[in-house]
TrEMBL record:
It comes from Enterococcus devriesei. Residues 227-336 are annotated as: Disordered. Residues 20-140 form the MobA/VirD2-like nuclease domain. Residues 227-243, 251-274, 290-317, 326-336 have a biased composition (Basic and acidic residues). This is MobA/VirD2-like nuclease domain-containing protein. It comes from the Bacteria.
């Protein structure tokens, strides 16, 4: 299981310095990771995007014992390829805590469009969803709903005052959250039926929002007031994750029905821990290395083209300047 955090940075150089210092594995997307700082800077200058946020950092953390540092780095590169395929990305793996984790530094510039990476609510959802996809593709578990993303009003906080015995009490909004958390629905109709069984109905659904009514309290609240996971977008993301879990379970069931090939002790340990064989990891590592080589070759070719273009532009400017000097001298009646 991997959890993720996304943040912006005013200095990719500082982010890389911190991440690289303790890295046990590192890799790059669309750049040579050993020259990531200068490469990132050159791309921003090329497109004239040197102000504001220079980049973004994702912390991708795995539960203890689930992956090796090498595998962790490969998974971080796979996440970068899904999330920012046209950006320069440096992936650094740390193993100095119980949780092996990646520092994924993304340069702000899209190499194809020249536009900046948009760090908004949709980007946060994309990071989480792509991370879940990477984990499920390699037989790893996915995290449950992030309870840290709940929103509590001052009234709700007062109900759970830590100085009183009321810490175990729930507000009616908590009951709605709990009912939603327990849902295993994969579409809106199933979701409505589930909530009705818990005394909650969906009052209104718009393209961007959803409103719930607590029948016993006869009170209603919009999903965004409960937290992003309980708004329209979060609920639909939950449907997708539930469908993916069901498909994963079905594939696992089909695999169990097939005869298994003989495995080595190392393969057996890997299968027992993650459901993925060492051969799967080796193939994934090979694919990742080939992708990295092709990206580096493309980046080298792009930089060479840009250097040649800049040289041509400098020669053209020098020629124009020389012509202006000649014309000025002629206007002043000087002999050349």
């Amino acid at each position: 299981m991997a959890t993720t955090k996304l943040s912006a940075t005013k200095s990719t150089s500082r982010a890389i310095n911190y991440a690289e210092k303790r890295a046990v594995e590192k890799s790059g997307l669309n750049c040579d990771v050993d020259y990531a700082k200068s490469s990132f800077k050159a791309s921003r200058e090329l497109y004239g995007k040197t102000d504001g946020n220079q980049g973004h950092v994702i912390i991708q953390s795995f539960k203890p014992g689930e992956v090796t540092p090498e595998q962790c780095n490969q998974l971080g590169l796979a996440l970068a390829e899904k999330l920012a395929p046209n950006h320069q990305v440096a992936v650094y793996t740390h193993a100095d805590t119980d949780h092996v984790h990646n520092h994924i530094v993304i340069n702000s510039i899209d190499l194809e469009t020249g536009k900046k990476f948009n760090n908004n609510k949709q980007a946060l959802r994309n990071v989480r969803n792509f991370n879940d996809e990477v984990c499920m593709e390699h037989g790893l578990s996915v995290p449950n709903k992030d309870t840290a993303r709940l929103r509590y009003t001052q009234t709700e906080k007062a109900i759970a005052d830590p100085n009183t015995k009321s810490t175990a009490q729930y507000s009616w909004k908590d009951e709605i959250r709990e009912a939603i958390d327990q849902s295993q629905a994969n579409n809106m109709d199933e979701f409505k039926d589930h909530l009705n069984q818990h005394g909650i109905e969906i009052e209104r659904v718009t393209p961007k929002s959803i409103t719930y009514r607590h029948l016993a309290e006869d009170k209603k609240v919009r999903g965004r007031k409960l937290g992003e996971d309980y708004n329209k977008g979060g609920i639909e993301d939950g449907f997708e994750r539930q469908i993916q879990r069901q498909q994963q379970t079905e594939r696992a069931s089909d695999t169990e029905c097939q005869p298994k090939r003989p495995t080595s002790n190392r393969d057996e340990a890997t299968e027992r821990d993650t459901g993925v064989t060492q051969a799967d990891w080796d193939q994934f590592a090979q694919d990742t290395n080939e992708l990295e080589r092709s990206r580096q070759a493309a980046e080298s070719a792009r930089l060479a083209d840009e250097k040649a273009r800049r040289n041509r532009e400098e020669r053209a400017r020098a020629k124009q300047a020389s012509r202006r000097i000649i014309n000025n001298d002629r206007e002043n009646g000087l002999e050349l």
